[in-house]
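Would you mind writing out the residues of a protein together with its fold in token form for me to study?
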Amino acid sequence: MEKITYTQIDIILTGRKIQSVIRENGCRVRELQEILRLSCPQPIYRWINGKVLPSVDNLYMMHRVFGVHMEDMLVAKDVERKD
């Protein structure tokens, strides 16, 4: 069998990257919560802490707010797999 390299999202490094984007743009979590129309800030803290990934909708809104491409907020890790 041939080894195939595919990409997964590194959830922890992605969280750190999102936190960096938020900070670099001088935004606070509460401000982002309001912009994204979230009922509480917990989802943002979960993203930052590498617990979950933001939805595509939220990634797109952050792209529009911060001027950062969605792909640039995601950190990939390559994984080798046998198929």
